[in-house]
Amino acid sequence: AAPAATFAGAISVTGATTLTGNIGVGRAPTNAIIAMGGSFENSAAISLAQSAASPYGMLLDFTSAAQNNRTNYFLKMEDSSAVKSTLWSDGGATFTGLVAGTSATLSSTLAVTGRTGIGAAAPAAGVLRVVGTDAGAVTAAVQFDTLVVENDRGADGQVGMSILGDDDSALGIAFGTPAGNTVCSIRAYGPTYSTAAKQNALEFAANSSVVLTLDENQLATFGGTLSVAGTSTFTGTLTAAGGLKVGLNDSLNSSTNRI
User: Fold this and answer.
1) What is the pLDDT of residues 206-228, one digit of tens each?
2) Which of 4-18, 100-114, 151-165 shows the lowest per-residue confidence on average (mean pLDDT)?
3) Residue 129: exposed, middle, or buried by beta-carbon count in 10 A (0-12, 13-18, 19+)?
């Protein structure tokens, strides 16, 4: 149907106005409530100004429908190539490009489906790159690029990660597969951990069994047989709970003094 009224020039509305039906601005009305179109080079398609001391922005009010899903959206932004960002009815957001800002607080879960860069552009490979200062002409090896932590602290600078807990904590890193979520692990124990023998100790485990413990007295304890394939020099006391293998076939243990 033809529009009820067509205005060819600019319209200025100084008071309250109620319009019933669909509205077209710069284009014919469509099935949208307001359809806007035209060519606005080097200028904004929509400009909203509020002169009050405590202004508000744009209100999108859909309180009559509670969709709360990732099918219906409050706002979708796209160009001729693809959808660039979407604000979903469940409160989530999807961005296809770099999200840049100086500070932000998230009160809900952040789900990112693509590669992510924090402090830098998203990495070309891997999943997450966290950068304080670019370290220069170096990239992570493909075997270890899932998470990359990068910084340049200058001469003799130190770059690292911290896992922090209280004094009676056990702090760890686990390596897992579908066959087991702790195939191998590394654990560090706090100074007041409930098991006294583990306090301030570092523990290495493989196949869910402890193979090496380094304690606060600088004592290394091996959970099984210690095999030395090459030449090793020990300046302190070497204690092995099991057998001590030197070479290929011979062993030294508590019942023999033979090598």
Assistant:
1) 988 999 999 998 888 888 777 77
2) 100-114
3) buried
CA 170 – CA 166 distance, rounded (Å): 9
Amino acid at 172: G
What is the Cα–Cα distance from 53 to 126, expressed in whole angstroms?
47
Query: Residue 240 carries which DSSP code?
Result: B
Residue among 67, 74, 78, 148 nearest 115 (CA): 148
Judging by beta carbons within 10 Å of its beta carbon (0-12, 13-18, 19+), is residue 39 exposed, middle or buried?
exposed
User: Whole-angstrom Cα distance, residue 133 to residue 150?
Assistant: 7
Nearest Cα to Cα of residue 151 among 141, 163, 138: 138
Q: How much is the pLDDT for 113?
A: 74
Query: In this structure, what are the phi and psi dihedrals at residue 144, rounded to the nearest 5 degrees?
Result: -135, 40
Residues 182, 135: Cα–Cα separation, whole Å: 32
- Cα(7)–Cα(40) distance, rounded to whole angstroms? 19
User: Longest C-alpha distance within the chain, in Å?
Assistant: 108
68: tokens are: 């709360």
Tokens (6 digits) for 18:
């109620």
CA 159 remoteness from chain centre: 19
pLDDT digits (tens, 9 = 90+) for 26-59: 777 787 788 887 776 677 777 777 778 777 777 8
Decide: residue 205, CB within 10 A, 0-12 exposed, 13-18 middle, 19+ buried: buried
Cα torsion 150, 154, 160, 165 to 10°: value is -120
Distance between CA 85 and CA 98 in Å, rounded?
11
Please check whether residue 183 is in contact with residue 177, taking contact to mean a CB–CB distance below 8 angstroms: yes
